[in-house]
Amino acid sequence: MPELPEVETVRLTLKPALGAIIQSVWTSGQPLRLNRPLPVAALRRALTGRTITALRRIGKYLIIDTDGPRSLLVHLGMTGRLRVHKAGDPREPHTHVVMTTGDGREIRYSDPRRFGQVEVVRRGAEREHPSLAVLGLDPLTEKLDGKYLLDRARRRSASLKAFLMDQSVVAGVGNIYASEALWRSKLSPNSRVDRLTGPRATALARGVRDSLRHALARGGTSLRDFVDAHGAEGSNADYLIVYDRAGEPCRRCRTPIQRSVIQGRATYFCPSCQIL
Ligand SMILES: [Zn+2]
């Protein structure tokens, strides 16, 4: 599932679409997340004839602004791809939205598993959308520090792993970067969040920021489906420190990395140097 570095990579690689004029909008007619049908009429009304003016991101949500009052809100779900093609390129299977632009290109959204989200929002009011109103701090665009995490940890008893993956705490961190950030901060994924202290919270904030920036610099992590807006895979999978590396030696202490399941999700950690 794409997490913050992957979504940010899509945003950055979509930049050639800035300034393009959307001439027409096509949809597959199939529903996406929550079995909600795509809002075809609203998409056409909001986008047709409009110029793409900005590409923004909040957590794992992409926002495509136009010179009109409404913006396109996109969440890639598990297998969503947002790509720029030449208009004549064959369409990938499971293409659900196509925006044809005046310069002979198409911005296409494809999504085999259809857990993604494509909606229209009023520009400037996107934070009022129910999916975004609940989001916590975005660790790339806002200041994530130990004080913030400590504050959000109050009166909670979840595991640190679950805490990091809670989108109302830190927006954009998912299963991969939660494991990576905890290794970087030398904290156990099973540790209870109410045991977080000032220094540990500071280390955790740094671990989150560093693991995300590290991945972003490598174009994101492509384990299965993720590609950027040009169709290129990111190289960060080769640079993950613990995720999907059970049995391999820890880079700090050489102890084999362990895999366990927390809240139904695979979790990777070093049992020797992540003990707090
Ligand atoms: Zn270790």
Structural notes for this entry:
The structure is a single chain. The chain has 7 helices and 10 strands. By secondary structure, the chain is an alpha+beta fold. A hairpin with a 3-residue loop joins strand 6 and strand 7 (105-110). It is elongated. The mean pLDDT is 95. Zinc ion binds next to loops.
Number of helices: 7
Low-confidence stretches: none
The average pLDDT score comes to 95
Instruction: Measure the end-to-end span.
Output: 28 Å
Small-molecule binders here are: zinc ion
State the order of secondary-structure elements, H for helix, E for strand.
HEHEEEEEEEHHHHHEE
Instruction: Give a short account of the largest sheet.
Output: 4 strands, antiparallel
Strand residue content: 15-25%
- The dominant shape is elongated
Structural class, please? alpha+beta
Strand sequence of the main sheet, in spatial order?
Answer: 1-6-7-5
